[in-house]
Specification:
This protein has 254 residues and is α+β, with helices and mostly antiparallel strands. The protein folds into two domains: 46 residues, no CATH class; 200 residues, no CATH class. Helices cover 20% and strands 28% of the residues. The chain is built from six helices and eleven strands. The strands form three sheets. A seven-stranded antiparallel sheet has the order 2-1-7-8-11-6-3, with helices on one face. The protein has a two-stranded antiparallel sheet with strand order 4-5. A two-stranded antiparallel ribbon has the order 9-10. Helix 2 packs antiparallel against helix 3. The longest helix has 17 residues. The termini are far apart.
């Protein structure tokens, strides 16, 4: 701190205290302003956007509901999953790591007076696909999207239960798309597993889903409506979300 004051003689104690105070509410901005970077700097104002590529076709890796599926109103109608309605599912905002594997199975037939067996073809299969990608969160809107993504993955790996017409049905079939029409284009898949890595030593950003409230025992009252801190959810500024997909050969819409 003393070195900074010597290099910047015009900086007073009040400005330093102000910079420290800013760090209480925004650690990242506090570090930058404390280092002498002004609020109007390009570094401070720079930020990534989760939007698509303008008029170009979006080739990000995504898991979406089939276009003809009538599960959209079931899975994306709640306040928590509302940020996913425009994309009809989830996507990885940054380019993920993908591992895909196709295999052909052969049966080795032993031949008399031969050093090598005869490889009789049996079948081929598409093995599991692994997707591992980072999810950045820079503000409360990004945090809402992160919460919706995790909630959606929890939902599509469970069978339907409770009331409704789909009670007892298995988890829905999704469409995998990414990297253009001739790589993954509406490939029918089911989500086998998914993992969310919540790292230690990073910042978390809080968010609230509008209209979501905790229901207290008994008859609902106005007190049940969420207050400023009731349904706050904390999303990590950076996390890994990975999933294992299995290609599903079917003509069914669901």
């Amino acid at each position: 701190m003393a070195d900074n004051l010597e290099k910047r003689p015009n900086v007073g104690i009040l400005e330093v205290a102000k910079n420290v105070g800013v760090g209480i509410f925004n650690r990242t901005l506090g570090r930058l302003t404390g280092a002498g970077i002004q609020k109007d700097s390009l570094i401070v104002r720079a930020g990534a956007k989760w939007s698509g590529r303008g008029g170009q076709k979006d080739w990000r890796v995504r898991l979406t509901l089939p276009a003809q599926s009538n599960l959209r109103d079931v899975l994306l109608s709640g306040e928590i999953t509302r940020p996913l309605r425009d994309s009809n599912g989830i996507f990885w905002p940054l380019t993920p790591s993908m591992i895909i594997q196709h295999s052909a199975n052969y049966n080795a037939l032993a031949q008399t007076h031969s050093n090598y067996p005869f490889q009789a073809y049996q079948n081929s299969q598409v093995d599991q696909m692994n997707i591992i990608g980072e999810f950045p969160v820079q503000n409360s809107e990004d945090a809402k999207h992160w919460v919706a993504t995790v909630h959606f993955l929890r939902t599509i790996t469970k069978m339907f239960f409770g009331g409704g017409d789909y009670k007892g049905n298995p988890p829905p079939i999704m469409h995998l798309s990414g990297y253009g029409d001739h790589m993954f284009h509406n490939v029918p898949v089911v989500v086998n597993t998914f993992n969310v890595e919540l790292r230690a030593g990073i910042d978390y950003i809080s968010t609230r889903q509008d209209g979501v409230y905790y229901k207290k025992p008994g008859k609902p009252t106005m007190a049940d409506v969420a207050g400023p801190t009731d349904d706050a959810t904390w999303a990590p500024t950076i996390s890994n979300i990975s999933s294992v997909l299995v290609e599903f050969l079917t003509n069914a819409i669901l």
